[in-house]
Specification:
It is a single chain. Helix content is about 35%, strand content about 10%. The protein is an alpha+beta fold. The chain starts with a strand and ends with a helix. It comes from Menura novaehollandiae. One of its GO terms (molecular function) is metallocarboxypeptidase activity.
Length: about 120
């Protein structure tokens, strides 16, 4: 896990594991939506999730193009965009895939304003 808003494309023509910016036709819209979420999240907006094992990982403005971060062939957000014209971003909300129940109220507080800002864009 991490704390970042990722946007299409997750797959790239070269399928290199990382570092390839895979721009969609609606790249500016996706960046706008990802920033709308990230800019209201207290950790995401810093661009420094500080996840164990990945302390040096950074994301400018708390967002990333999926394939630039790591290439995923056949991902759901790309599939929905290409085949259903559904604009989807992926939100990584925690360094831990399964946070303990005791941390859920904090996660809600971290994400509440982001969710509202994102819904307003819809």
């Amino acid at each position: 896990g991490s704390v970042v808003a990722s946007y299409p494309y997750d797959d790239s023509p070269t399928h290199r594991p990382t570092g390839v910016y895979s721009k969609s036709a609606d790249d500016e819209v996706f960046k706008y939506l990802a920033k709308a979420y990230a800019s209201h999240h207290p950790i995401m907006r810093t661009g420094k999730p500080n996840c164990p094992e990945e302390e040096a990982e950074t994301f400018p403005d708390g967002i990333t193009n999926g394939a630039q971060w790591y290439d995923v062939e056949g991902g759901m957000q790309d599939y929905n965009y290409v085949w259903a014209n559904c604009f989807e971003i992926t939100l990584e909300l925690s360094c831990c895939k399964y946070p303990p129940t005791s941390e859920l109220p904090k996660e809600w507080e971290n994400n509440r304003e982001s969710l509202l800002a994102f819904i307003e864009k819809v």
